[in-house]
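Ticket #4471: structure output looks truncated?

Reporter: J.K.
Steps to reproduce: submitted the chain below (228 residues) through the standard prediction queue, then opened the result file.
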Amino acid sequence: MEVFIVEDNENVREALAGYLRLEGLQVREFSEIAPAESALKRFAPDLIILDVMLPDGDGFLFAQRIKKTRETPLLFLTARDQESDRITGLELGADDYVVKPFSPKEVVLRVLAILRRTKGAETATVPDKLSFTLDEEELSVHEETHQILANGEAVPLTAAEWNILIHLIKHRPQLFSRIQLLESCLGSMAEGSERTIDTHIKNIRRKLGNENWVETVRGFGYRFNGGE
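Returned output as attached by the reporter:
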């Protein structure tokens, strides 16, 4: 598997690349957005580690361009530690968000966790196909091809979004608190705030096209709301 690192701090970049290579991953290093964007036309990395503040542009804007054409998992690196920045990153479809300074070993563990979820999500124990209806709309879950279709259209979910939605579907109509979803679905990301789950749910609802697929029970949490 291959990882792109887009980080202008040479020491940080080389340290991360070294640890990732020790884990058997191929790594391409970039100090600016332009060469990384060019490389994406020729290569298909399994994950991109992306600094938010880069010499030739904003990492958030670059992430927006990436997500228009592919669903490559993203892990943001940034010195900006405000919760609003974390939420912005997650709303852009990031799978994780790490604030500097950090331990390279910790970032590598997070990368490996994302790759396991991305490559192994299809092992979720759901039947080959589940179909649901709600408000005359249809939702289909295809385990074998790791697809979710809303009214026949494929829904591009991040690994984190897939894990949350599949967890809610598998345990329907059980209600889950934000803390339960953090711990059950996000693994190494569980130290994030409860707003992290709210942001993922918001993204899932937007992508499914009907916010009622995931019901909010005020003061308690979320549950899947489709009928078979």
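Triage note (M.O.): checked the attachment and the full token line is present. The first helix runs from residue 10 to 22.
Status: closed, working as intended.
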